Amino acid sequence: MNNDTAPAIDTTRADAFAATYPVRPIPAVGPVDTTPIVTTPAALGELDDLWRTIVPETRARGNDIHLPISLAFAERLCRAYPDADSDLVRVAIVLHDTGWAHVDESRIISEGFTGDWRKADIRFEHEQRGLEVARRVLPGLGYSGDFIERVCAIIDGHDTRPLAYSLEDALMRDADRLWRFDHAGIAVAASWFGLDPARYTDRLASEIVPELITQAAFEMGTADLGRATALLKTPVIR
Questions:
Q1: Residue 155, domain member (yes or no)
Q2: Please, which residues have CB within 8 angstroms of residue 197's CB and are 6 or more apart in sequence?
Q3: Is residue 193 part of a domain?
Q4: Quick one: pLDDT at residue 223?
Q5: Rounded CA gap, 128 and 174, in Å?
Q6: Total count of domains within the chain
Q7: In the chain, which residue ranges form alpha helices assigned H by DSSP?
Q8: Does residue 69 sit in helix, strand or coil?
Q9: What count of Cα atoms within 13 Å lies in the side-chain half-sphere of residue 102?
Q10: Which residues are within 8 A (CB) of 65 and not within 5 positions of it... i.e. 6 or more apart?
Q11: How far apart are the first and last CA of the chain?
């Protein structure tokens, strides 16, 4: 998809969400767990059938690391924001990056993680392929058509649309970012951008922390970043 033909932002939905949650980052109303994510993996078994349907998609671009860690963060965020539809957030985070398995692999790093990477055509493409995966696998698992389209509305634009449309959209976006702050996420994602851990953690602090929409995500991300920089000795090894 050419950037000139990218879908227009639905300002009505974005403005409505902003009006509903005018304080940013959005305050948490439930418990915020800032312990290392390894201590609370995602709920066992509940989404196993979905995972089994997308095993081929998890083998692309480190999704077998990225998606499970992001799901664990999504579940924490849903506990901090109990008004959100947790099923919607969880299914959307599992599926959001499956489209990477259905684009030209040679272009993923060369286009999707260099230059103005947020506007790269390959990112629009992976979102659209992700919608196709969701619409292919979810009906057979018993999800309703309405639920599937709500999942797709979150996947569509999760990397390329700058504004969230709903609390569920915001939580999925924050979970998608939070995995990068864990030491495993740093190890994987730093290589995508061709950065050493010190420069990558600097980038997390300067670019990604300000993007976090919820207070819970901010607290989780900054706690993880502090632990990771100490563990990886990035103040010294740079």
A1: yes
A2: 186, 187, 190, 232, 234, 237
A3: yes
A4: 98
A5: 20
A6: 1
A7: 11-20, 48-53, 55-58, 63-80, 86-95, 105-112, 121-137, 145-155, 167-178, 183-192, 197-203, 215-231
A8: helix
A9: 19
A10: 184, 185, 188
A11: 38
CA distance 11 to 215: 23
| Cα–Cα distance, 63 to 126 (Å, whole number) | 13
Can you give the pTM of this predicted structure? 0.93
Spell out the residues 6+ positions from residue 167 whose beta carbon is closer than 8 angstroms to its own. 17, 20, 21, 26, 81, 83, 84
**Residue 115 within a domain:** yes
Token digits of residue 30 = 């439930």
* C-alpha pair distances (Å), 114 with each of 6, 62, 95, 117, 122: 19, 17, 24, 5, 11
Distance between CA 17 and CA 113 in Å, rounded? 29
Inside any domain, residue 151: yes
Q: Residue 162 is part of which domain span?
A: 45-231
- The average pLDDT across 222-238 equals 97
- Asked whether 201 and 11 are in contact (CB, 8 A), the reply is no
For 24, the token pair is 């940013």
Q: CATH number, domain at 103?
A: 1.10.3210.10
Q: Using CA atoms, how far apart are residues 215 and 140, in angstroms rounded to an integer? A: 36
142-199 per-position pLDDT tens digit: 999 999 999 999 999 999 999 999 999 999 999 999 999 999 999 999 999 899 999 9
DSSP reduced 3-state for 213: coil
